[in-house]
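User: Can you predict the 3D structure for this chain?
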Amino acid sequence: MSNQEALLEINSLHTGFEIEGKTYHAVKDVSFDVKPKEVVCVVGESGCGKSVMSLSIMNLLPKHNGKIDKGEILYKGRNLVNLNDKEMNKIRGKDISMIFQEPMTALNPVLTIGFQMDEVLINHTSMKREEIRKKSISLLKQVGISRGEQIVHEYPHQLSGGMRQRVMIAMAIACQPQLLIADEPTTALDVTVQAQILELITKIQDEVGMAVLLITHDLGVVAEMADRVVVMYAGQVVEESDVDRIFYDAQHPYTKALLTSIPRMEEEREVLNTISGIVPSLKNMPKVGCRFVDRCPDAMPECSKVDPQLGETEKGHSVRCLLYDASHPGKKTEVR
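Assistant: Here is the predicted structure, written as structure tokens:
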């Protein structure tokens, strides 16, 4: 999937965890790319491999049992999988930054906000100490924290969830990265604060000109933020396209099920649509066949026997489903 325009290119990524002597893949054969200044949303239920995929990019998998078994993660053509910790530390925070899912655990509770902000600039710039502190205060103001001079002396527990998330964003943009990975950046925040955080990310993206890889399970966020959407299920990409086609011409049964689960203001329902069953656990992934087969309303006997491949049904729209596989006799539609 060579793409000279891509800032980040993921090719056939397999990330596994060793449990009781066996390797189980939380991410299997994932491929997609992110272009400069583009917002790509990765969407799916909890347990579908979104966060493991993001940690693979940052090389932050648990050392004792997590590893990338196969595939490439190319940043500007350089394979991050082959880099050691020292080489990755030069890239993390400078070229690629990440906003983690839970700011209370991502921020060190025993260090001041200012110390943690300064550390990013100390590691990646040659600025003097007094310049660094001024820059840290300026960054806090840039993300909407007006009393930056006081906040730098405070600890994470003294701030609200929304304020801590703003601090995380300030740290992430300190060195003006070209790619920002945001892993569920609005989880556990009030609805009004969620909107403010998303607006802030959009504003900073415009100012800095960075690309954003946004990981979420909220399709409302996807509709508002995304240029392209990658739908994941049980560690695999099942559909990928631009945001309009995902919402108005979804093809994979899982994507369709996600969309029909959204409550709509114009419809009156006593019972909301749900997807029956649950995402298979890491130890119980099907060894062969489609991973969605047990929950799929369109499942055929072949779906349990044949591994569906991710293929284009039209230019820029890829689906992993036998219903759209041109080589399968029971295909639903001709490849356009």
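The chain has a mean pLDDT of 90. The chain is about 30% helix and 25% strand.
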